[in-house]
Design brief:
- The structure is a single chain.
- The chain is an all-alpha fold and 543 residues long.
- The chain is built from 27 helices and four strands.
- Strand 1 and strand 2 form a beta hairpin.
- The N terminus is likely disordered.
Amino acid sequence: MPIALSIAQLAASLALAAPQSPEWTPAQAEHLLNRASFGARPAEVESAVRAGRQVLVEQLLKGFVEPAEPFFVDAPVRPDRRELEGLTEKQRRDALDRYRREERELLFAYAGWWIEQMVEAEHPLREKMVLFWHGYFTSSMRDVRNAEAMIRQNELFRRHALGNFGQLLRAVLRDPAMLEYLDNNQNRKDKPNENLARELLELFTLGLGNYTEQDIKEAARALTGWRTQAGSEALYSPRQHDNGKKTILGRTGRFNADDLVDIVLAHPACPRRVAGKLLEHFEGRAPSEERLAEYAQFLKESKYELAPFFEKLLLDERFYAPEVIGERIAGPVEYLVGSVRRLGVQVPPPLLWLAAGQLGQRLFDPPNVKGWDGGEAWISTSTLLARGNMAGMLLGVVKLEDVLKDDAFEAGDEPGMMDGGMMGDSMGPKPAAGAEKKVDLGPELSAMKRMLGTVYYPRINLTARVSRVGLSSDGEIIDFLADELLPIALTPLSRAALVEFLENERRQLDVDDGRLLGAGVKAEGVLRRLAHLILSLPEAQVS
């Protein structure tokens, strides 16, 4: 069920048609739906205003409808060595290729399902947090090379998305994808591997400057014993766990993984880091020291429960300050999902997954262990142009083959996504965790071009949409479409550019102002090009 219907039903059922207080404005309601959901159209904003801030925040925290039916995972089984021994070289190659193809198809289907959850926005804040945790506790399919493990990790993020950070952290340290990605399979009591321990302290909990190299070594010892089995299951091996005394962050004992989590959660740097990352992500800027201290203390006192944290944040007047609204750059996934929702078009979810990858955010393939940088790093001259091209593709005014480009794989001699490297050939070397690479989509991208070039057709009629509300002049059309398609108000400078564009388009058709809609098919082309230009504006890149 789309969020438009959910919010409208919520407002109607509570009979909240009376005007709200001046503190709850349409701009604030849209801001909340931009940050805690994936954008909204004017009708949705109007319903949100009628519902009121408190009610809307409560609904965002629990979702608008019952949880979606979970994705069914029927994971392929990799041929083992005994199965391969009696085969010819070609038969072995064919068997492994078949397995990798099935792995690819499974992850491809799941990525589409996840995108669909974002577009439908039945529980948008939860999906926003799944996306956030995906970039916070990163793992990549190239390194993990097991589709089921990556899917299970995503489901883990969904279960804990708005739950308790401590429980999420404990689960992550037992997550097969994370254990593989950060090499805990090689972390044994006689030969510790520090990768998982280092990222636990540096990225997940404390941040640089709040621990020592010795703390990392000791934390690695606490994490010994946990490894993966069959690629997608976690197994604890007591014989491989170092049960000796360890000193971590000033505390001494025979610590294990759970003890380590307790230690880092108790450290004063942990709530500051988690609260700071959440504030910066949802507000688009680093918080002041005073605000960070306030929210860190609240998170600590709430025992790391995330729902109370978000209730406080989304009801905080400072969250709706003018310097916060419209000042956060949307990531590629958010931009594309928001554009689809505002346009009201039905797009095959895998196309959005691929398009987001072309813009620099391919789900299940973060660039390194730190995830995507976000913020201003999302935007450059080339990526801004690419975003406009993707919007044009959604509208049908830019050809698919003109915007989907082949990526060059840059990882030395490592195989790409389409051969052994991504899909788990255990007989080949594994890429180093966190190494910066580009992914080669190879024949998969070509297949997508062929399939979507015939399947996708933008079912949109902007002429009918504008006519239905009785608009005709250039200014009316521009203001209406800008209101429909932009997350924030159109600036005077951008509006002037759109007016000039529409005047030139009419002049070429020899049509007077106010009579554009009478130009039939040509009018629809003009309106789609206008919408394309609107979605290419700087105002369209924020949330």
